[in-house]
Structure formats: C-alpha cells, structure tokens
Amino acid sequence: MNAHHPAQVAKLRQAVPRLLSRLQQHGLDVIEIKIGIQPRALSSSVRQDAAHAQARTAAGDSPHRRSEREIEPALSFARKLALTLQDSPLRSAAVRLAASLSSGLARMRDSGQAGREQDREEHDA
Q: What pLDDT, on a 0 to 100 scale, did the predictor assign at position 95?
C-alpha cells in the first residue's frame, strides 16, 4: 500500500490495532502489522533545487539565512497567535517564537546596515 502524505501514514498507524482485531476475528493468524516509510525518488526539479542550494553553500551563502521578506510574515503570525491564545504552554511558545524572530530580524537589519555603511566608506575612500 502506498501513502502519498504523512497524514495518511499516521492514520494507518492509528488503525493498526483495529485492523489486527478484525483480521483475527475473520480467522487470520496475524500477530503484528508494521507500517514503514520508504522515501520516494526525487523529481528532477527537487534535485535541481538541492544542487542550487549546495552551490550557494559552497559559495559561502548560508542555506539557513532567511530574508526579511520571509521572516516578517512568520513574526506577524507568531505575534497574532500569542495575542489570541489563552495563557498556556502553546501561548508561551508563540511568545518565545515571536521574540526569537524579532531579535533575528533586528540582527539582520543591523548587520545589513553595517554592511551598507562599510560599502559607503569604501566607496568614499
């Protein structure tokens, strides 16, 4: 059986006890059912994206560095989530996520501004 989505695999795992019981009720001597995951072969576009990421890493770009454009929506979401949740561990996690994203964005902006100032000094010299 092939599952195309991780949620389908999870549902299958949840159904194992029920499946075992039903198979045994029908007289089949089944002791266990194992659910395994086999990764699919990568499509050519995924391989190309991976090759581009490796090339950027080799050129000195960090694959983990995110642009402000990518971080700002996540920060906005984390802040809104923290405001809408009741006091709970999930709310605390949303607050920590927002703080982490905010400080990362501030560092990114500071380092970008420092880099622009250094470029100006080199250009003026």
A: 93
Could you give phi then psi for residue 4, rounded to 5 degrees?
A: -95, -5
With tokens 């019981």, the residue in question is 21
Sign of CA dihedral 2, 8, 9, 13: negative
Mean pLDDT of 104-123: 66
Give the helix/strand (H/E) hosting 24: helix 6-25
CB-based contact 43:15 (threshold 8 Å): no
Strands of the chain (E only): list them. Answer: none
Tell which residue, 61, 81, 65, has the closest CA to residue 73: 81
Reduced to 3 states (helix: H, G, I; strand: E, B; else coil), residue 93 is helix
Q: Is 78 exposed, middle or buried (0-12, 13-18, 19+ CB in 10 A)?
A: buried
- 0.70 surpassed by pTM: no
Per-residue pLDDT, 68 = 78
